Amino acid sequence: MKIPKKNQFQVVKSNFIKNNIQEIPEDRLTLSEGEILVQVDLFSFTSNNITYAVSGNIIRYWEFFPALGEQTDDWGVIPVWGFADVVESKTEAIPVGDRIFGYFPPATHLKMKADRITEKRFIDGSEHRATLPPTYNLYKRVLSESNYNRNFDQDRALFYPLYITSFCLWDSLKENDWYGAKQVVILSASSKTSIGLAYALHQDDSSPKAVGITSNRNLEALEKLGFYDTSLTYEQLNDLDNNLPTAIVDMSGNNSVLVDLHKSLKDQMKFTLKVGLTHWKESNPNEGIIKVRSKFFFAPSHIEKRIQDWGASEFDRKTSGFLLNATAQTKKWLNFKDLTGLEELKTQYPDVCSGNLPADVGLIVKM
């Protein structure tokens, strides 16, 4: 009987369009006391993962899952969100057969050090992850959840990392009194995280109106959603009301568009939250951005703050309700596309990198 290979999908960190599938050496998966070996079952892959690659050095995303194999110089691993099953364990607290949700490499297997274990969750206490953002080190033991249903795993893998960011953006804007804005302009408005934010604003009667900026090909679909008060293309930016106090949420990373908005809005540009990099090829710095009223928004930091403010249980309660409702709305128009294994991910990967994947498609890689 042929033993299946244990593989990992890798990219060149300095030019992440280049990719490869490397076999994981068996000695890199040998367990010590307190460690577990998980087999990845499924994960999502979106433009959000490309943001991880673009900002891999700045936010240390490359450090979560080191590239394994014979040639790893300049190779990195883009993190993904999904589910895995415990196939080997050297801790009595985590049995073989346990199923977990969280942050994984696009790989067949991952060795982890289970720490701070409770019935519902644990932390990967691997030494190389100790100083990385703790939100990404937390894993949910889903079999302990009273309402866990495996049929909804693909929903959770795709929507949780996107819509938890949408929730945090809405919550941050609201906490700051919308920065005095009467309109929230969302760049790359057809991205799923943007749509999640638009949904949150749409459901909040106290929020300013939402203006979505998107490409020509996505305009009609965006208008049909009904979440944006106004939808414009990038070519229609001159139609934006520059007399209204404005907050900008930039999911695109296209700084030339941001510069144009800052120059046209002037003092009416109250604040800009820079979030994603869906247009990463145009993300070079440009003069003209009002830096004193701009900041990079890092969702894990906001999550940590709210867990301290509310407690973990209350945070889970508030976000779960939002995630369920936003997901139900999204499934009315989104189509899942299943990929089988890392080879099919490799085939589809260039389309995700280039932004050519249609907005109404959600990729799920089933291992």
Describe this structure in words.
It is a single chain. The protein is of the alpha/beta class and 367 residues long. It has two domains: 7-148 and 333-366, Alpha-Beta Complex (Quinone Oxidoreductase, Chain A, domain 1); 163-300, 3-Layer(aba) Sandwich (Rossmann fold). It has eight helices and 17 strands. It has a six-stranded antiparallel barrel with strand order 3-5-6-9-8-7. Strands 12-11-10-13-14-15 form a six-stranded parallel β-sheet, sandwiched between helices. It has a three-stranded antiparallel β-sheet with strand order 2-1-4, covered by helices on one side. Strand 10, helix 3 (192-203) and strand 11 (209-214) form a beta-alpha-beta unit. Helix 2 crosses helix 6 (299-310), helix 2 crosses helix 7 (312-330) and helix 6 crosses helix 7. The two termini are 19 Å apart. The relative contact order is 0.14.
Q: What is the gyration radius calculated from CA atoms?
A: 21 Å
**Amino- and carboxy-terminal Cα gap:** 19 Å
Mean pLDDT, all residues: 92
In the CATH hierarchy, what is the class of the largest domain? Alpha Beta
Question: Quick one: how many beta strands?
Answer: 17
Strand order across the biggest sheet? 3-5-6-9-8-7
| Structural domain count | 2
In the CATH classification, which architecture of the largest domain applies? Alpha-Beta Complex
Q: What is the helix fraction of residues, given as a range?
A: 25-40%
What's this, in brief?
With 367 residues, the protein is α/β, with parallel strands linked by helices. The protein has 2 domains: 7-148 and 333-366, Alpha-Beta Complex (Quinone Oxidoreductase, Chain A, domain 1); 163-300, Rossmann fold (3-Layer(aba) Sandwich), CATH 3.40.50.720.
